[in-house]
Structure formats: structure tokens, C-alpha cells
């Protein structure tokens, strides 16, 4: 299986590409913005495709040629303004979804925010509200397609070493989760077709990731 990781140079993206390559049965194609970012992924044996997420659908679709699944894990980051949030977290996500259709890729994993409901938008502080709005509508766009989607809503992200154990369900209490564990969750979703059409929240817990994903 070949998996396109959009936002591969991000922290979750790097963990995910490594996880895919170490699986021994799948190959990652890392979509990156700059050629100088390629060396890390090439050292893992992954493919690379240099595409700006703020570019055209056709460019993303070309990166998605001959892949079996797409993971959208791109993000504008916490230090950019609402303009970049809209351009990357909303428009970039929608363009990637549309590119999947063009490329004929059915399997799509969206890495979202912990809570993207209407209530979450209303309750979000002004500085965070554009991000929640962007993720809300990106998720809704994906739900309205006929893609085989899964939406992952991780808790507060940390750089702690992964434990390999989480708590995952439609709704869970707020908590944190390591980026490394989120990457493992994403990979298990790709492997487990029972997650198609599902959206779930995930935080650190006591259930092995493979088992937690099977129980969804």
C-alpha cells in the first residue's frame, strides 16, 4: 500500500512517515513544500513530492497519483494569523479532498481538532476560533463526499514519547496525547477498514492502540 502524507514535514507527519516505512508492508509518499525538506524522508526510504498546499488542486492530484490512501495532517501552525489558517487548514484540506477525487483515491484520513462542533466554535476564545471554524467546515466537506473517510480528533498534542496506549471513542474527556501515538493511531486506521465513515476523539489511555481502534 502506498500512502500520501500531506503535511509530512510537520511533527505528526514525520512520525507517520517513519511509522509507515517501519511497517514493512506500506510505503509513504511525503508531500512537502520545499526540496530541502526531502533528505529526512529519503533517508527513511520514503518517496517525496514537492507541492505547496496553497497551490492548485491539480498539483496535489499529481502527488496523489497511484497511491492507495491520503492522510491530511497539514496545519498552518500556532504562530500564523487567520489568513493562513483559512488557506491551509480549510482551503488546503478541501483542495486535498478534491484532489483525491481527481486522482481516484477513495481512502482519506483527516487529522482534525479535538472538538469541531458548533458548540466548540461558539465557546472558543477569539484567537482560536478561526482554527476551529476552519476544521469544522473541512470536516463537513469531507463527510459530504463518497470517499472512504476517517476523521481523527486528537487531544492536546505533546512531544512526549509514545506509550502505544490510548483511549479512543466518539467522545472522550479532554486530555493530551503524544504526536507519536497519534501517528500510530492514523496508521491503524489505514489498516483497519472498520474505521471508514467514523470520526472519533483520542487521548492518552491504557488500551493498546491496535485494540482501541478495533473497538471503535
Q: What is the CATH class name?
A: Alpha Beta
Strand content: 15-25%
What is the H level of CATH, i.e. the homologous superfamily? NAD(P)-binding Rossmann-like Domain
Topology pattern, helix = H, strand = E = EHEHEHEHEHHEEEEHEEH
> How many domains comprise the coordinates?
1
**Which descriptor suits the 3D outline?**
globular
Low-confidence stretches: none
CATH architecture: 3-Layer(aba) Sandwich
Count of runs of 4 or more consecutive helical residues:
8
Q: Helicity level, as a percent range?
A: 40-55%
Overall average residue pLDDT: 96
- Secondary structure tally: strands: 11
User: What quaternary form is this?
Assistant: single chain
| Terminal Cα span | 23 Å
Rg over CA atoms, rounded to whole Å, is 16 Å
Biggest sheet, spatial arrangement of strands: 3-2-1-4-5-6-10-8-11
Derived structural class:
alpha/beta
Question: How would you describe this structure in keywords?
Answer:
globular; single chain; SDR family oxidoreductase; alpha/beta; Rossmann fold; 11 strands; 216 residues; NAD(P)-bd_dom; NAD(P)-bd_dom_sf
Question: What can be said about this structure in brief?
Answer:
Pfam families: NAD_binding_10. The protein has 216 residues and is α/β, with parallel strands linked by helices.
Please describe the topology of this protein.
Layout (H helix, E strand, L loop, with lengths): L1 E5 L4 H13 L3 E6 L5 H6 L3 E4 L6 H7 L5 E4 L9 H22 L3 E5 L6 H6 L5 H15 L4 E7 L1 E3 L6 E5 L6 E3 H13 L6 E7 L2 E2 H6 L2
Parallel strand pairs: 1-2, 1-4, 2-3, 4-5, 5-6, 6-10, 7-9
Antiparallel strand pairs: 8-10, 8-11
Helix pairs in contact: 1-7, 3-4, 4-6
Protein name: SDR family oxidoreductase
InterPro entries: NAD(P)-bd_dom, NAD(P)-bd_dom_sf
Pfam family, one: NAD_binding_10
Amino acid at each position: 500500500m502506498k500512502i500520501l502524507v500531506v503535511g509530512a514535514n510537520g511533527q505528526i507527519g514525520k512520525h507517520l512517515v517513519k511509522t509507515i516505512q517501519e511497517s514493512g508492508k506500506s510505503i509513504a509518499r511525503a508531500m512537502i513544500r520545499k526540496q530541502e525538506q526531502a533528505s529526512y524522508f529519503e533517508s527513511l526510504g520514503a518517496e517525496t513530492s514537492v507541492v505547496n498546499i496553497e497551490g492548485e488542486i491539480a498539483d496535489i492530484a499529481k502527488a496523489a497519483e497511484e497511491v492507495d490512501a491520503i492522510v491530511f495532517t497539514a496545519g498552518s501552525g500556532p504562530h500564523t494569523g487567520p489568513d493562513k489558517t483559512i488557506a491551509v487548514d480549510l482551503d488546503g484540506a478541501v483542495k486535498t479532498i478534491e484532489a483525491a477525487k481527481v486522482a481516484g483515491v477513495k481512502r482519506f484520513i483527516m487529522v482534525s481538532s479535538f472538538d469541531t462542533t458548533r458548540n466548540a466554535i461558539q465557546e472558543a476564545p477569539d484567537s482560536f476560533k478561526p482554527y476551529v471554524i476552519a476544521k469544522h467546515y473541512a470536516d463537513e466537506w469531507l463527510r459530504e463526499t463518497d470517499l472512504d473517510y476517517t476523521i481523527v480528533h486528537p487531544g492536546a498534542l505533546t512531544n512526549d514519547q509514545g506509550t502505544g496506549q490510548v483511549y479512543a471513542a466518539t467522545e472522550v474527556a479532554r486530555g493530551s496525547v503524544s504526536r507519536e501515538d497519534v501517528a500510530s493511531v492514523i496508521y491503524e486506521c489505514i489498516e483497519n477498514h472498520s474505521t471508514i465513515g467514523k470520526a472519533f476523539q483520542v487521548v492518552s489511555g491504557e488500551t493498546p492502540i491496535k485494540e482501541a481502534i478495533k473497538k471503535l
